[in-house]
Each structure stands twice: as structure tokens, then as C-alpha cells.
């Protein structure tokens, strides 16, 4: 049995092997394979052909030491179980792969301590930049440190006004206000909001960068606009991430003067609302109208189909990648805050408010 003396079965091909095969110097082969420095097109083509023939695989660690880049991006996601973040992650990975980058993913479960640990881990792995859906818009020292240390950061889904960083999000306040206006237009006055973020007693959000609080503020704005002064009686929020939204919804729906409509701030909360309604024998939309943020497969599959505020989830991820790569490649422009449009999709889960039935208007 004969073997290739330069890259036999017991030793992978090296840059000197590729250089000999291509008839160029080691330095030329190294520059061509790492795609840096000055190399003629003809020499670059010979080197790449030789590398393919010999089955050469680049030593990424050595390459990163030469170029200063690893061609990896870190994505710190708030809740990978949430269909919204699952879709965003798909957008991130697809866009990164198309640009020649790999993605290292971390999930925080909305825990600032887990986020700090994830950012440290990804920086230790020398990612070229970070996409972060921040768990807190006040506990952000680790993001500031990453940015100051030369690791670009793009904020996803949430904005932090005091951080000098690019961000990609939707207009959560405006989208929520529009959704509640639609319920009001259908004659609803007792409109509930269920969320796992926020404070039932706070008349206005104290954290303008929070997605959940922006949606609550939009809900309150629509009620006030319609002359509904009491914007808190039908508001239920979770004290901490992971609280069962069905429990929050059941408390509302079993009250003496229950809501005629519910606006859920995400699809997982909407499932809890529907579960609570079923347990109480309420029909959607005859007894209870429902709108949720985020379009999911189940929202289209159940009957009645659920009306939603649809976000461009994969585009959000892709835009964040494009913004980050622009920074990685040396962009020095002022921070850009990209706001993508949402779309209201009307289905069968909203009806006119019933009057004189089960305590409903």
C-alpha cells in the first residue's frame, strides 16, 4: 500500500505540504489559506486547489492568532424555550453561516447572573462579537466591559438607553397599543393584560428598555386614550420569570367582574390564558377574546385560530448579525437603533364584547 508521504493516513496535511503541492512559499500559502495579506489571484487559486487535493484543514487557533479573529459570534439568548427566541436564533445562525461565521449559543433564563457567566465564557473563547438579549437593563456592567475591551456588542429585542451600542428590536409600545385599540373598537372595556414582567402597582414603567414594560405601557396608553382611567385592575404580572401564567389568568377570569378580553404579552402566556379559560368553561371568542404577541404554529393550528401581533423573528436575528459583523470588520459609525415593523394578523379569537352574560359587558 502506498501513501502520500506529505499527508499520509497518520498525519494531517500541513501548510508546508500545501505550499509544496502548490509550488509557492510557506508564507504565501499561509496568507492565501488565512485570506489575509497580499497574494496574487493565480497563487491563491493554486493554494486552494492544493489544499482541497490534500484534504488540508485549517488550524483555527493558529489562524485566529494571525488574523486576530476566530470567525465565531456569541449569542446570549434570554429564553430558548420561548418560540420567539427560537425563531430569532434561527435567524442568527442562518445569517452568520452565510457570512462565514459560526455561532456559540448561551441561554440565560432571564437571569442576570447567568448572563454575566455566559458573557465571560464567550469572551474567554475569543468570539469576535456578542449578540445579547439583556436580562436586565440596569445590571449591564459586563456588557460595558466587553464593549470597552474591544468585543463589539449588539443588543437584541431590548434596548438600554445608557449603553452606547447598536440594537435591533420592534416598537413594542406601539404594537401593544394598536392591539388593545382593536379590542376597544370591538366594544371591550374590561381588557386584561397578562405578563411575566412588570409591577401591577406601577402606573408607568420605570425601565424604558424592557420589552415587557414597553408592552404594558402601550396597553395603558390605549386604555387612557379610550377614557378608561383604571388601567391596573385587569393587569396581572408575574413576580419572577417562570411563574405559571395560567394561575395569573385564572385569578382574573374567576373574579366577580371578569375581563371580556385578554392581551397576552407572549405566546407562552397566551397558552396559559387559554388553559385557564378552558378550566373555567369559557369559550373563545364568545366569552373571552384573546390576542397575543408572537405568531406561532399552534396559534394557527388551534380552533379558533388566535389573533396575533407578529414579529419578524428571523429578520431580527439576521439584522443583529449584520450589525455585529459591520462592527467586527471595523465599523466606527455612531450606534444604530434598528426598529423593525410588526404585523397584526386578525383571526377568529376576537369578537364583539358580549353583554349581560357571565358578568360580561
Please give a handful of descriptors for the protein shown.
6-stranded parallel beta sheet
Descriptive report:
The chain has 361 residues and is an alpha/beta fold. 41% of the residues lie in helices and 15% in strands. It has helices at residues 15-22, 26-34, 41-54, 60-67, 83-98, 112-124, 141-148, 172-185, 211-225, 245-253, 267-279, 297-301, 313-328, and strands spanning 72-77, 102-107, 129-132, 153-156, 166-170, 191-195, 235-237, 261-264, 289-293, 307-310, 337-340, 343-345. Helix 11 (267-279) links the parallel strand 8 (261-264) and strand 9 (289-293). The longest helix has 16 residues, at 83-98. It starts with 14 loop residues before the first helix and ends in a 16-residue tail after the last strand. The relative contact order is 0.12.
Short description:
The chain has 361 residues and is α/β, with parallel strands linked by helices. Helix content is 41%, strand content 15%. Strand 9, helix 12 and strand 10 form a beta-alpha-beta unit.
Order of helices and strands: HHHHEHEHEHEEHEHEHEHEHEHEE
Average the pLDDT over all residues and give the rounded result. Answer: 88
Tell me the number of helical segments per DSSP (H or I, 4 or more residues long). Answer: 13
Kindly state the percentage of residues in helix.
40-55%
Structural class: alpha/beta
Q: State the major sheet.
A: 6 strands, parallel
Distance between the termini: 88 Å
Radius of gyration, Cα only, in angstroms?
Answer: 26 Å
Amino acid at each position: 500500500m502506498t501513501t502520500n508521504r506529505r499527508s499520509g493516513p497518520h498525519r494531517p496535511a500541513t501548510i508546508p505540504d500545501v505550499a509544496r503541492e502548490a509550488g509557492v512559499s510557506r508564507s504565501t500559502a499561509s496568507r492565501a489559506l488565512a485570506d489575509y495579506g497580499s497574494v496574487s489571484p493565480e497563487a491563491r487559486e493554486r493554494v486552494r486547489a492544493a489544499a482541497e487535493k490534500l484534504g488540508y484543514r485549517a488550524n483555527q487557533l493558529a489562524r485566529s492568532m494571525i488574523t486576530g479573529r476566530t470567525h465565531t459570534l456569541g449569542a446570549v439568548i434570554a429564553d430558548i424555550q420561548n418560540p420567539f427566541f427560537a425563531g430569532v436564533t434561527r435567524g442568527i445562525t442562518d445569517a452568520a453561516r452565510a457570512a462565514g461565521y459560526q455561532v456559540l449559543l448561551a441561554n440565560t433564563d432571564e437571569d442576570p447572573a447567568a448572563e454575566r457567566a455566559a458573557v465571560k465564557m464567550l469572551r474567554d473563547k475569543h468570539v469576535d462579537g456578542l449578540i445579547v438579549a439583556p436580562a436586565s437593563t440596569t445590571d449591564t456592567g459586563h456588557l460595558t466591559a466587553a464593549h470597552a475591551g474591544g468585543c463589539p456588542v449588539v443588543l437584541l429585542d431590548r434596548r438600554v438607553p445608557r449603553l452606547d451600542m447598536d440594537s435591533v428590536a420592534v416598537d413594542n409600545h406601539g404594537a401593544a397599543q394598536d392591539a388593545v385599540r382593536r379590542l376597544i373598537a370591538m366594544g371591550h372595556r374590561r381588557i386584561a393584560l397578562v405578563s411575566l414582567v412588570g409591577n401591577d402597582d406601577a402606573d408607568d414603567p420605570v425601565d424604558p428598555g424592557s420589552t415587557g414594560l414597553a408592552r404594558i405601557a402601550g396597553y395603558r396608553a390605549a386604555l387612557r386614550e379610550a377614557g378608561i382611567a383604571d388601567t391596573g385592575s385587569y393587569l396581572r404580572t408575574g413576580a419572577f420569570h417562570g411563574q405559571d401564567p395560567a394561575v395569573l389568568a385564572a385569578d382574573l377570569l374567576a373574579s366577580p367582574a371578569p375581563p371580556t378580553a385578554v392581551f397576552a404579552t407572549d405566546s407562552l402566556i397566551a397558552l396559559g390564558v387559554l388553559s385557564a379559560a378552558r378550566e373555567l368553561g369559557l369559550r373563545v371568542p364568545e366569552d373571552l377574546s384573546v390576542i397575543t404577541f408572537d405568531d406561532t404554529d399552534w396559534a394557527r393550528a388551534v380552533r379558533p385560530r388566535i389573533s396575533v401581533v407578529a414579529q419578524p423573528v428571523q429578520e431580527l436575528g439576521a439584522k443583529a448579525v449584520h450589525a455585529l459583523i459591520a462592527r467586527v470588520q471595523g465599523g466606527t459609525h455612531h450606534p444604530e437603533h434598528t426598529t423593525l415593523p410588526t404585523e397584526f394578523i386578525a383571526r377568529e379569537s376576537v369578537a364583539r364584547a358580549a353583554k349581560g352574560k357571565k358578568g360580561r359587558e
